[in-house]
Amino acid sequence: MKDNSVEKTESILKSAWMIAVVIVVSKFVGFLRDIVIANFYGAGLVSDSYFYAYQIPSLALILLGGVGGPFHSAVVSVFSKLIPNGSFRADERLNKLFNTFLTSTLMVFTILGILIFAFSDVIMQVIISNGSSELVNLASLHLKIMSPVFVIGGVVGIYYGILVSYKKFMIPNISPILMSLAIIIIISLVKQDTNGIMLAFATTVGAVCQFLFQLPKIKQLGFKFRPNFDFFNNQQFKNILELLFPAILSSTVGQIHIYVDMFFASSLKEGAWSAIGYANRIFQFPVGILVTAFLVPLFPLFSRLVAQKDYEGIKYYFNKGVGLLNFASFPILIAIILLGYDGVKLVFERGAFGADATFMVSEALIFLSVSLLPYVFRDSITRVYYAFNDSKTPFYVAFGSIVLKFLLNWLMVPSMGIGGITLSTSLVTLWNACVLGYFIRKKISLGLKKYFVDLLKMFLIAVLSYIICFGLYNALSVVGLPLLINLIVMLLIICFVYGVLVLLFKIEYAYELVNRIVAKWKK
Predict the structure, then answer these.
(1) Which of 57, 68, 447, 478 is the most exposed place for a label (fewest CB within 10 A)?
(2) What is the DSSP string of 219-279?
(3) How many helices and strands, by DSSP H and E, does the chain display?
(4) What are the pLDDT digits (tens) for 391-412?
(5) Residues near 21 by Cβ (< 8 Å), separated by ≥ 6?
(6) pTM of the prediction?
(7) What's the rounded mean pLDDT across residues 362-372?
(8) What is the rounded CA–CA span in Å between residue 118 and residue 436?
């Protein structure tokens, strides 16, 4: 019979993988949404206006209220202790705490939403101060339409937390898909939307759908909204606030980086900010799936090992996990650098998305791809900090890099344009990864020597793979295959060349992969 702790760990990992699959689906639908937006709006004034304006409501809906956001995390931390088995309906005590938090959130976010609506022109003028008056005015109009999303964001985050506390994992992870679907359906039906008003409207409708999708299950669990203003005599509510405010500060640091980029992008040609946004979404599609698939199950494992003080186990699984991520990342990096332009052309270049937009997005994407390996390391080591209940160090590191981000943009953007913004992002990611790697030594020795030796070997193999694949790419271009066929063939060639070389150079991850495939085949 299995040990209870082992069964619990396997249950957590099974749930984590199920969540990871849903996140993969969510990213795919989100990517499809971006293709549809690009088709109807291209990369120009209207798309710039929308993406500039959307950064404000996305702060509430995605960063603050999203899965893993401050509201979600604070609710889970407090409510999960009050309902340890997650099996009974909410009683009067839980409802009181729920209503106190929900009432205060609605009050604060409604006031902020009204202020955003009233002063949208001022907000947009500050963020895109170098932009044209037409861009500022249109972005301001988009922001007014999407201002209700700010109110919905905090509520959605609370609902996410309640559902997770009751171990209802799927609903919070499925509901973001609804926003993407709402946008796809509405703008596809309207078709003619010359100023992007329906796109902004569709975003607000999508946020409402997220809220409504969760509501029946919240009611089924016994939670009923009754305004409660007892903000000062509820210790559990105070506990939520103590967790909430530091987490909000931490979550908004990354947003400040985005605002810095928006400021510099507004001085570039029309469509620059849209191009950066599309490039980031393309980058996040394979990379986000890869990182999620590995780190979702690794995070609870790190936490369990820290609780058991099994530091050798942490060291082993960290190096193993990040090593596997690097192993899988190099062919992605080769593909982005070699085939990025062709990929953007195939996926996006239709309708309002022309050849100029393809060039801008591919330029931004290539410089952004440099951040792939530092991105993997930074996100992985951040999970180790969290496993040690240390969220302050990653926050301080991220906050300190704001000045570096501004300085790099100031130095690079005048000469490099869009590429300067995404290259500065890559360099800041590298800096954060190095600093986090340095300070982790105060908690644990991760034995990174083997990690860097393996990384160097795979880097040299990747360079050799790129040189070979570049020659084959030029040879294949003479044949004149259709773009889709050419991309498929080249992706297969990249995987084959890289695979052969890692086996020849005896990279252990390659042999492990082969052994697993052989074992599965025999089974």
Answers:
(1) 478
(2) HHTT---------SS-HHHHHHHHHHHHHHHHHHHHHHHHHHHHHHHTTS-TTHHHHHHHH
(3) 18, 0
(4) 778 888 888 888 999 999 999 9
(5) none
(6) 0.78
(7) 92
(8) 41
